[in-house]
Please model this.
Amino acid sequence: MAVSTLDRYRMYRDSAYQRRDAMSLTKKVALALGFAILIGLMAQIRLPIPWSPVPITGQTFSVLLAGVLLGRWWGGISIALYIGLGAAGLPWFTGWSGGISHLAGPTGGYLIGFVLAALFIGSFTSKFFKSRSFLRMLGLMLFANFVLIYVPGLLQLNLWLNLVSGSTIGFAQTLTMGLLPFIAGDVVKVVAAALAARGLLPKFADNTNMDRSK
Model:
């Protein structure tokens, strides 16, 4: 019986996923660095917002996929590499910039949230294989995006605004600057990431061949 293109893709995907956990440490670090580079490139897809120090970028999509494809720890490690090397001066933060000042700036909290989101998504998709359906993945990614990324992001943005302005900035104004302009675009990125995860992740438990039909 001839094997369809879709079946060949599934066999290749499942084989690649199983090989991921068996990779050497050197290869895992190289893969994490590759995703860090991707996140740096996506940071350059930038749309400034006139009333906010936080621009719209394409990073969220790649951050969520890092958690999906690299697994429990290595997704978070890839984001940590991106932040650490950027803080050390590698110019791949938004606007081809670098330096430790970014960690204390208006977007520093979002960077920390990226690590939390990648660790959360990677842990769930590795440990609970039933979470790999589109709707479950969408729910997990919405939580990771709007809670794990935005809570530390908004807290640091509010602190930064109050320190820089010298006057009290209310949290409602912080939401106007740091959340509301991003909701529609983030929903689109999260849906795209959930669709990508649905196609890229095998539908069986790690290191087994069970439950492929779901």
Q: What stands out?
A: The longest strand covers residues 46-47.
